[in-house]
Structure formats: structure tokens, C-alpha cells
Specification:
2 copies of one chain form a homodimer. Helices cover 63% and strands 9% of the residues of chain A. By secondary structure, chain A is mainly alpha-helical. Chain A folds into 2 domains: 83 residues, Winged helix-like DNA-binding domain superfamily/Winged helix DNA-binding domain (Arc Repressor Mutant, subunit A), CATH 1.10.10.10; 98 residues. In chain A, helix 2 crosses helix 3 and helix 6 runs antiparallel to helix 8. The longest helix of chain A has 39 residues. Chain A is elongated and about 70 Å long. In chain A, 36% of the residues are buried. Chains A and B meet through helix 1, helix 4, helix 5, helix 6 and helix 8 of A and helix 1, helix 4, helix 5, helix 6 and helix 8 of B. Chains A, B: This is PadR family transcriptional regulator.
């Protein structure tokens, strides 16, 4: 169901074709909610059937047409109602931590490889998310620019602040992952020091 | 595929029936890898077909039998090989952060509710994981006790250290979530202070 709200969220900034919606899930909202194209197109059609979005045909090239989806009042109401409802927290599922619990089955060299890869992956994520925050705060992010154009000036501060806040949360998590991986490398050195020769 | 390795991981501590395996996914490994019963039973049967585990019938009650699954040499080899292979990192998917990016659509009271719920949820997780670490370090955790009995004493330090390390990583993440939610409450106060009267 979260996919539906992610789609509604981006349609509050601008009406989009199915293709453009899928594209947004590669950048933009895709940073916080990943979804493959194969889920997005059918979900848009279901949302149209439920009148949360309205598809309008428009000309595309000399002979073709394409559908552009507009959020409806019912769609906005559904989005606001989700915003007022407590979330259900899913149980934890993280393969890196699950694997780490059984590292005694790996060679020390493999443990080191996993931990270095973990730190490198999340360091890269931090860089990506930091550049997102910069583009949000400077209003250069195309989705932010489109959104700000659509809403009155007195809302702009909140719009920008909450988007940056969401990414700051991801950066905190990624930093915790990097710190954890580094503490694992220290643990490994200590264990190898303790190991009987 | 990760479910398969989570199952192999727990079978390295002791052979288990399907029911006992499913139970382990409620506590123990379930803290790091959640899986519903409906996935565990079919996976065990697939793993038996692939000779990663061996099911042995045993008497159960006056007339019944049940199957106990033993990890095979091929199962151990598959587990070790997974342990030596770099992980693929899945794209991010977190509903709380996705929602937070669009908090301008929520009333300030709802934002406060979400952030407080977020902090409370992860504070509770920290408490649960901390008590797991304690039970691991004291060897009172039943799965740790079973595992230590099965492996030579010189491996015990690593077995215990890596399990505690995995949970420490989860605690770091949960602490980052709590800190983020608290910073959100501060942001909200600041925005409400800025809001036109």
C-alpha cells in the first residue's frame, strides 16, 4: 500500500505520465521508496479505477496519445488521511546484520571484505543523499522547483524543511552503518589478536 | 534467497523440526531476519530437495511422526560460500522516511504523533536488542547455549562476539532513528514558531 502513497505524494507536485512517474522512482522519491516499473503501471491503473487519480489522454507525436495522471480531490483526501494515521512498523529484515551474526563461519578475510564493502556502500549513499539535500535547499531540485511553483509562498519553508529532514534521517542511518562496520573491523583485529597462534 | 541462509544459520546450532525453525524466526534470528511461517515450511522442503538439509522422521506422540531437519555437508558448504560472497545491497525502502518527506501535508499534531511514535518504537527496539545482547554475552540465550555446546571452546569467543556485534549494529540504527525523530520535533517547533500567526 505504501507505493500508492508514494505515487500520490509525487503527483501532488505535478501531473505525470506513467513513464514520468516511473522515472521519479529512479531519482527523487526513489531515494526513500524503491519500486520497479512493473509495480508502478498497474498501481496507477488501480488508482484510476478508484478515482484517486484521473488519467487524461494527450497527443504524443504525430499519431500517438499518452495518459497523464492528475491527482483528484479524493486522491488528496486519501493522502491526507494516510498522513494522519499511525504507521505500522514492519519487523526487521536486514541481510547484512543477519549475516554478521554468523561471521564465525567466514574467513577473517571475508569478514573484512564484507565490513569494508558495507562502509563503502553507505559512504556512497551519504554522498548521494547529501547532494540531494543541497539541491533541495537551493531549490535546484527539479521536483522541488515544480512543487514550490504550485504552492503558496508561506508553505515553501515547510516543503523544503521536511524534504531535507527526510534525507537527514537517511544520512544518520547510513552514518550508523558506517560506524558499525568500522567497529567491526576493530573487533576483528582484537579477535585475531586473541586467536591461538 | 536470504531466508535460505538464515535457516542454514540456525541449523548450524542444532537440528530442528519445521515448527521449531518457525519459532526461531519469532525470537532469535527473527530479530534480524523476519519471515512468516508460510515461507519457512516450503523453503525447508526445497532445501531438502536440494540436499542442503536432511529430513529425518521421528516419533511424535503415540502414533504420529515429525520431521527433524539436519544441515548436511552440502548445506554447510553453501552457507560458507555465501559467507565468502559480497552482498548485493537492495535499494532503500522505508515508509517512515518517505512519509516524512511530505509532512507539509500533515497537521502539526499528526507530525508530532508520527515522530513520537517513531522514537517510542525504536526506543522499545533498543530495549529488546539490549536484552538479547545481555543474554548472548552471559551465554543464557538458549540458542547460544546450544551452539556453544556444539563447537570447540576456542571458537566460543568469536561466536559470542559476532552475535553481540550484529545486535549492536541494530541498536546503532535504532538510536539514529530516535535521534532523527527528536530532531524532527525540534524542527517542528521551529517551523511553528516561524509560521505566520
Amino acid at each position: 500500500m505504501s507505493l500508492r502513497y508514494a505515487i500520490l505524494a509525487i503527483l501532488t507536485a505535478a501531473p505525470l505520465t506513467g513513464y514520468e512517474t516511473a522515472k521519479r522512482f529512479e531519482g527523487s522519491v526513489g531515494h526513500v521508496w524503491h519500486a520497479p516499473d512493473s509495480q508502478i503501471y498497474p498501481e496507477l491503473r488501480r488508482m484510476e479505477a478508484e478515482a484517486l487519480v484521473e488519467g487524461r489522454e494527450e497527443r504524443w507525436g504525430p499519431k500517438g496519445t499518452k495518459t497523464r495522471y492528475y491527482i483528484t480531490e479524493a486522491g488528496e483526501a486519501a493522502f491526507r488521511s494516510w498522513m494522519a494515521t499511525p504507521l505500522k512498523y514492519a519487523p526487521w529484515r536486514d541481510v547484512a546484520h543477519m549475516q554478521a551474526a554468523y561471521f564465525e563461519w567466514a574467513e577473517p578475510a571475508s569478514v573484512r571484505m564484507h565490513l569494508k564493502q558495507h562502509a563503502a556502500h553507505y559512504t556512497e549513499q551519504i554522498a548521494q543523499w547529501s547532494s540531494q539535500i543541497e539541491a533541495i535547499r537551493s531549490h535546484e531540485h527539479p521536483m522541488i522547483a515544480a512543487r514550490l511553483e504550485r504552492y503558496p509562498a508561506e508553505q515553501h519553508e515547510r516543503i523544503v524543511a521536511f524534504k531535507a529532514f527526510a534525507y537527514e534521517g537517511l544520512i544518520r542511518l547510513a552514518q550508523a552503518e558506517v560506524d558499525w562496520a568500522r567497529s567491526g573491523l576493530e573487533l576483528l583485529e582484537q579477535l585475531d589478536g586473541d586467536a591461538p597462534a
